[in-house]
Design a protein that fits this description.
Ferritin, Ferritin-like, Ferritin-like_SF, YciE/YciF family protein, YciF
Length: 182
């Protein structure tokens, strides 16, 4: 019978699964990608907050900024659990999504529903990327037996899904004219 590793028992994961080093490397790179993405988002969200006109949207984005800072901290805990140094790997997808969001701000008139809706849609694209990434990272952590890490990733995934739902509700409200400046 195969002996359970420390990671599989839920303890600190101090080494990769030796049976599948390529899978571990892919997982580690996925976490590094998420770490870059979340750090980049911490820099990007204040611009979105400043560009929004809806107070409800500003507050929601500010709350998400605080959550995102927590996601960065959580990823640092994950690196610690894995016995890895917290190293970011550039995330081209997040960089592109952030540029797209900046373009929305540059091409829509200040103080309009168009800009607020564009900011929401840009933020949702980011959320969808993060949801997909955290879903995959969670599956990889579970597969590799990193139960504590999987739990941390699941928590962030749930928060990202909640934010996406809130953004959808806001977009509907703004587009239906119920919350132009609310």
């Amino acid at each position: 019978m195969k002996q359970q590793t420390k990671a599989q028992a839920g303890a600190k994961a101090t080494s990769p699964n030796p049976a599948e080093p390529e899978l571990y490397t892919f997982f580690r790179d996925t976490v590094r990608d998420l770490y870059w993405a979340e750090n980049h988002l911490v820099k990007t969200l204040p611009k979105m907050i400043a560009s929004a006109s809806s107070e409800v949207l500003k507050k929601a984005l500010a709350k998400h900024l605080s959550e995102t800072e927590g996601h960065v901290n959580r990823l640092e805990k994950i690196f610690e659990e894995l016995g890895e140094k917290a190293i970011a790997k550039k995330c081209d997808a997040m960089e592109g999504l952030a540029k797209e969001g900046e373009s929305v701000i540059e091409t829509t008139p200040k103080g309009t529903r168009a800009r607020d809706t564009g900011i929401i849609f840009a933020a949702q694209k980011v959320e969808h990327y993060e949801i997909a990434s955290y879903t995959g990272a969670h599956l990889l952590a579970s597969t590799l037996g990193f139960n504590n890490v999987a739990t941390l990733l699941q928590k962030t995934q749930t928060e990202e899904q909640r934010t996406d739902k809130l953004l959808s509700e806001m977009a509907t409200s703004i587009l239906m004219g119920k919350s132009k400046k609310a």
